[in-house]
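S1.2 Input.
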Amino acid sequence: MNKSFMAGRRGEAGDVRIAVAGHICLDIIPAMRSQAGRSRDSLAAGKLYVVGPAVVSTGGTVANVGIALHRLGMSVRLLGKVGDDLFGRAILDVLSGHGQNLANGMIVSRGATSSYSVVISPPGVDRTFLHCPGANDTFRAADLSDKSLAGCRLLHFGYPPLMKRMYADGGSELVRLLRRAKRLGLTTTLDMAMPDPDSPAGRCNWRAILAGVLPYVDFFLPSLEETVGMLRCKPPGNSLDGDYLAKIADQLLGWGVAGVVLKLGADGLYLKTAADPARLAACGAIGLDSDVWTGREMLAPCFRVQVAGTTGAGDCSIAGFLAGLAKGLPPPQALTAGVAVGACNVECHDASSGIISWNRVQRRIRSGWKRLPTRSRLVGWRQNRRDGVWLASLDPGC
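S1.3 Output.
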């Protein structure tokens, strides 16, 4: 194994280089207000509507997870792909505004169109998105060179359903990318996105894609909704059940991933890991303690906060979990870090300004921060009074 991938002392903020790759875009959100005499649920064709100033921000895994990790104090390298156009320069400017070197690893493709979304959000009406995939659709395994990953110990990749080459041909490019990262000795993590069911991505055989990809993924971090859609499972109904979550996780673990973290929205984060210690020991440069991580199953409820907005909440929860993983925290504390960073995020309207430093997050957790009661039916589980995490009846910590 190349020693450059193993450099750094564990447990200090900023010492573990995390590469965040995948989808990135520019979000353009015009300020809209209600107008007398106009139906609030439609925009009539051929009319001119006066709007306010637009909020321009970055979106996607690379920006949301990457900036959150940076604000937590972690050393991060962003590896998204943009064009050499006006929107591409705007994306790079936004990233550089968060950290002088954050845009240094970005891939600029000459002649390509940068991805962007126009978010149409009239008051009191569900948002409508106009999305251009742009350079994300051309992202391929070769765009991540060995040099771009040098010095990194963990690779997080996000949103392949929104990146054409990543899901085409049965996900062969995604397999190639993750397989090479594993050969280089990195720990690998993967997040998904919900594709339009009527789009080419939505019509893919995601069961087959995941079966081919997950042997090269150490931690799979999708939302429950995304997972149910991709596996074509029966939805859980009005209340979550521990057995239902375990059944979903077991399907994914059976395809070779070491650990599954399901984002449950307001219900928190659910974790289940493989029963084979050898699989946990093979998680790459992060160096997990297989005695601590093998055969774990738990649910970390969300913390109580005043919610201002949920933009980027899932990505920020992932950032918190990855930071905990990189710092060598045991599963309950790593999962708790995930829901804590997600809670900080939703206290602000945007995807990043609510994120505070790692030490401040930990102080807030230790201060007695109250958790929300779980709405899931967890028969036979018990809640650890010390940290508030629910443990399954067969979890070694029970």
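S1.4 Remarks. Residues 1-14, 36-40 have pLDDT under 50 and may be disordered.
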